[in-house]
Amino acid sequence: MALPSPNLDDRRFQQLVDEAKRYVQQRAPEWTDHNVSDPGVTLIETFAYLVDQLLYRLNRVPDKNYLAFLELLGIQLFPPSAASAEVDFWLSAPQPETVTLPAGTEVTTAAGEGEEDAVVFATADELHIVPSELIRMLTAPRIGDQTDRTAELAEGRDIPVFQGAPEPGDAVLFGLPTAVPRCVIAVRLDSRVQGVGVDPRQPPLVWEAWDGGRWQRCETGSDSTGGLNRPGEVIVHVPAGHRASLIGGTRAGWLRCRVIEAEPGQPFYSESPTVREAAVFTVGGTMTVEHAETVTDVPLGSSEGVAGQRFPLGRPPVLLDGEPPVVEVSSPDGWQRWEVVEHFGRSGPEDRHVRVDATTGEFSFPPVLREPDGSLRARGAVPPKGAQIRVSRYRTGGGPAGNVARGAISVLRSSVPYIARVDNREAARGGVAGETLENAKLRAPEALRMQERAVTAEDHEIIARQAAPSVRRVRCLPAADDTPGGPVRVLVVPDAVADEGDDRLRFEQLIPSDQMLASITRALDERRLIGTRLVVEPPVYQGVTVVARLAAPSADADRVRDTALAALFRHLNPLHGGPEGTGWPFGRPVQYGELFGVLQRAVGDVLIEDIRMFAADPISGRRGSPVDRIDLGPGALVFSYQHQVVVTATDAEGQG
User: Fold this and answer.
1) 3-state secondary structure of 512
2) Which residues are paired to 311 by β-bridges?
3) Are 622 and 571 in contact (CB under 8 A)?
4) Do residues 337 and 294 touch, judged by C-beta distance below 8 A?
């Protein structure tokens, strides 16, 4: 079986002729006779024939030659990128001293039949799990002064934590001895008098941490108090920005529990809950982990003392998004470190430089180039003959295998005292496979056209995708004509996987990480035009809630409901929704009639009795009045927010 021939350039004879004639119109407009009888056109066709034959032969070269051509153009295959996730490290018991997890602490998924089935992750930074306790408790009504309740708490009184008739904005504050960034805090409360009127399964409360300038919202785990209704404890995940500040005359690390406005249909407090006893202690910490494994002391071989030597690694690829690999060469004075550089263009004869192909894991030492006068010029130092070469440390991993599901990371591979268990509350994301040669063939013309400069909107989008391969969608909005000098906005949508398996995304999954935004900003800032102002951010997400009432036989009620909900979540999806199934188009309005058609196609001949559509805020959860059309700005996308489908049963004749 013959190997498929590459297609380096798909232009043919007639296309070459047409391109040449267009250049003639641009460069020599006085040449107006383009008929085949014109001698100049005869020359154009002659050269087009020769180029066509050259392209035919060029398209017969093997992939190895194509890779060499790409390297001559400065184009290399992109290595895989590593997935990342937030992992909680749970203490076996509250500790009196700080527990420190060093950077590089490894955790894995549970292995299958063989150990090789486990996916290894490592912490990206050092984590300090700081002990805590309650030193102050304040109540802060929406309108009025704060009150220190610490003394009353010590006396065992029942303390109302909000106003007698609670209002949105009422809060109770807990002061800790110091800030506890990235720690998991348990707030244990003894509530003897229940807050009247609230649903314990859905209390209108939010927990927040003070970062020195504003209150940051905290994620909460289990809440056995049912919204401060009964004795129990609340697990609070404190964000990284937590700072100690002076509030109410006391400098402390402050947390607060605040009443928020109830959503439509959500019960609200009619009386304040009370607290008789309160305690705070640290039960764990949270740190970002990456699908990467650190490999140490890997021998590469012995130097021959010549320029341009190459040494492959046994375990590629090499991850370059963190600390670079450490390459060392033996010498009489011990091991000498050689710097990993992007290219040898600025390397002098004495510079100990080395390049690495991250995809193949091949390390290259500097070459010697022949100058026009025949002399040789070294583009870097050469390891002496017989010197041993090793990679003392590098990181490997990456790829889609790291995109594990929520709760999959459950094994602590490194030995850390006092850590009992680990888990990830969110699915890992960002793992992308290394670039294929076919993709590089498509990318090469774009790279040559851009010349590493961001000029057009398309240039900005291409560079953004290259800087962060795990980005799902990118949209560049140039500065508006009515605002000269305004910023160029680059909107970034990360890839996400629905936890339910039915297109139900959570809002936080669609917000790109700070690391992703920083990588894109850095890449664009190096290539932008002078005077261009850049803003790299997520798009505006317009929440849409659809409430539908359908009529179906009782035996089919559950199936019809599930089918209708799946159709709504699939269609109103920023990643793969919309009419074409490739993601909701930026700025496209949502219309009542379109949703009616989506539901009707999904449920078939089932009667759709009523559909109502609401604009909703996915952050606050508020929604407006029913509308027939929701308009979106040019940089906005839709987000499905809490669709509701009610199916009423009918008898065999279709009567209710």
Assistant:
1) coil
2) 363
3) no
4) no
Q: Where are the beta strands (DSSP E) in 303-440?
A: 310-312, 326-331, 334-340, 353-357, 362-364, 368-370, 376-378, 388-397, 409-412, 419-424
> With left for phi above 0 and alpha for psi between -120 and 50, is residue 587 left, alpha or beta?
left
Distance CA 622, CA 614 (A): 10
- What residues are paired with 189 via a beta bridge? 232, 278
Residues in the chain, pLDDT under 70: 1-8, 61-62, 112-116, 192-195, 481-485, 498-502, 621, 651-656
**Residues 289, 345: contact at Cβ < 8 Å?**
no
Which residue is associated with the tokens 């049912």?
Answer: 226
- Whether the CB-CB separation of 168 and 261 falls below 8 Å is answered with yes
Element (H, E) at 457: helix 457-467
Report the Cα 527 to chain-centroid distance in Å. 23
In the chain, where are the structural domains located? 13-61, 80-291+398-432, 293-397, 452-537, 540-650
Residues 214-241 have pLDDT tens digits of 999 999 988 998 888 889 999 999 999 9
Q: At 13, which amino acid appears?
A: F
Rounded to the nearest 5 degrees, what angle is found at the Cα of 235, between the Cα atoms of 149 and 260?
65
Give the CATH number of domain 452-537: 3.30.300
Using CA atoms, how far apart are residues 278 and 158, in angstroms rounded to an integer?
Answer: 11
Among candidates 249, 212, 257, which has minimal Cα distance to 135?
249
Determine if the pTM surpasses 0.85.
no
Q: What is the pLDDT of residues 141-154, one digit of tens each?
A: 988 889 999 999 99
Looking at the chain, how many residues does it have?
656
Distance, CA of 515 to CA of 597 (rounded, Å): 40
